[in-house]
C-alpha cells in the first residue's frame, strides 16, 4: 500500500508510482469521487473531450428538432 502525508496547507504529494499508474503529471486535474460514505476514488481528469468523438453512432435517419422536443415532453421535460 502506498501512503502520503498531508502538509500544513492541506496538500499531498502523490507518490511517483501512483502518478505513473494514473498517467498524470504537472498541471493535470484529479477528481475525487465518493463511492461510499468516507471512501473516495481518485480519477485522473486528463482526457480531452475530443477523445469522445465517435463513441455514439449516428442515427440511421436524421431526427428533427420537433421530434427531439416531443421526446423531451414525452419523458416529462418542460416545454
Give a structural overview.
The protein has 79 residues and is α+β, with helices and mostly antiparallel strands. It has one domain (16-74). It contains 2 helices and 2 strands, in the order H-E-E-H. The protein has helices at 16-22, 65-74; strands at 30-36, 39-44. Strands 1-2 form a two-stranded antiparallel sheet. It is elongated and about 55 Å long.
Outline:
The chain is of the alpha+beta class and 79 residues long.
Strand content: 15-25%
Strand order of the largest sheet: 1-2
User: How many alpha or pi helices?
Assistant: 2
Supply Rg: 21 Å
Summarize the biggest pleated sheet: 2 strands, antiparallel
How far apart, in Å, are the first and last alpha carbons? 53 Å
- Kindly give the count of domains: 1
Mean pLDDT reading? 88
Helix-and-strand structural type = alpha+beta
Shape: elongated
**Total number of strands:** 2
- Helix share of residues? 10-25%
Tag the structure with descriptive keywords.
single chain, 79 residues, alpha+beta, two-stranded antiparallel sheet, 2 helices, 2 strands, 22% helix
